[in-house]
TrEMBL record:
TM stretches of this protein: 41-63, 113-138, 150-170, 182-203, 241-267, 288-310
Keyword terms: Cell membrane, Membrane, Transmembrane, Transmembrane helix, Transport
Location(s) in or outside the cell: Cell membrane
Lineage, top ranks: Bacteria, Pseudomonadati, Pseudomonadota, Alphaproteobacteria, Rhodospirillales
Protein name: Peptide/nickel transport system permease protein
Main location group: membrane
Gene3D superfamilies: MetI-like
SUPFAM superfamilies registered for this protein in UniProt: MetI-like
PROSITE patterns cross-referenced by the UniProt entry: ABC_TM1 (PS50928)
GO BP terms: transmembrane transport
Organism: Limibacillus halophilus
Stretches assigned to the ABC transmembrane type-1 domain: 111-311
Pfam family, one: OppC_N
Length: 323
């Protein structure tokens, strides 16, 4: 009996591996893969993005120091230059800040926080926007009118003002200490509520087209509930533009988080993001300690540029008129 089970497991494993290999071969021969590997800029942007994200993800293991552990900090190591200067310390490759923290380690940990806020806010905005867009486009009538009027009102304000308003409301409701404890979630909520409109308007437009097609009408005739029709049939056919928006919005969310942190309304200084590091280093920029702010700023610029390039490629690759 045991031998039969082992044989069955082996056959199942081989079947799954064969399917995976077949799917991989199909993906490699697809138009999107061809478009990706044909563009050297896109490949380079993907590699840079992957390196930054993996470095941020594994920061606790690859960072030379833990910059947020007070027990490991030494003020005697503060304001040291990096590898370019003979006055630097080899253990601090990019120098140290005013508190003796290793700049390279703070960048890795700061990127982790910035990307976490960016991904979480994009997911939140996408879920909210897609849900409201589906309801607005499929149901129409009063529901459509209310959702679209709210979206139009929000579009009259810049995203940063909406984020500042939401953050200010929570700061007033929670108080300073409690707000700092929940700063990550407040940031995600603030940025997410600033970006949902794009998803809602895009999904609504696509839903208006899809709901009049024959496969949706057939689903209605056989009695499938509207909610299942929206999820099973309409949603998969409107996800192409959403993926493009999500990719570009990731870069915008990271920039917005950095801006809010630079203004002092982001994550607390005990666990700073890239924006907080730039704000801290800005105070020492004209005193000759340029590396404290330049290197975090360069990391932010490289990350945003790479993600934007991927978003531009994805937009063109998913556009059937450009194939």
């Amino acid at each position: 009996m045991t031998a039969d089970r082992t044989t069955d497991y082996a056959l199942v494993r081989r079947g799954l591996m064969a399917r995976f290999a077949d799917s991989a071969r199909r993906a490699a021969k697809s138009d999107i893969a061809h478009s990706f590997f044909r563009s050297k800029v896109t490949v380079l942007a993907a590699l840079v993005t992957a390196v930054i994200m993996l470095s941020a993800l594994f920061a606790p293991w690859i960072a030379p120091h833990n910059p947020f552990d007070p027990a490991t900090l030494d003020l005697l190591n503060s304001e040291l230059p990096g590898f370019w200067s003979t006055e630097g310390d080899p253990q601090f490759l990019l120098g140290t800040d005013d508190q003796g923290r290793d700049v390279l380690s703070t960048i890795l940990y700061g990127s982790r926080i910035s990307l976490s806020v960016g991904f979480a806010s994009v997911i939140f905005a996408a879920v909210l926007g897609i849900s409201l867009g589906l309801l607005s486009g499929y149901l129409g009538g009063t529901v459509d009118a209310v959702i679209m009027r709210i979206a139009e009102v929000q579009l009259t304000f810049p995203a940063i003002l909406i984020a500042l308003l939401i953050d200010g409301v929570f700061r007033g409701l929670l108080g300073g200490a409690k707000h700092d404890e929940l700063a990550f979630y407040v940031l995600v909520l603030s940025i997410g509520l600033s970006f949902w409109v794009q998803y809602a308007r895009t999904v609504r437009g696509s839903t208006l087209v899809e709901k009049n097609k024959e496969y949706v009408q057939a689903a209605r005739v056989i009695g499938i509930p509207p909610l299942l029709i929206m999820i099973r049939h309409v949603l998969p056919n409107v996800m192409g533009p959403v993926l493009v928006i999500a990719t570009i919005n990731l870069a915008l969310a990271v920039i917005l988080e950095a801006t809010l942190s630079f203004l002092g309304v982001g994550v607390p200084t005990t666990q700073p993001s890239l924006g907080t590091l730039i704000r801290i280093g800005n105070d020492f920029l004209f005193s000759g300690l340029w590396w404290i702010t330049i290197f975090p700023g360069a990391m932010l610029a490289i990350l945003v540029l790479a993600v934007n390039l991927l978003g531009d490629w994805l937009r063109d690759a998913l556009n059937p008129k450009l194939r």
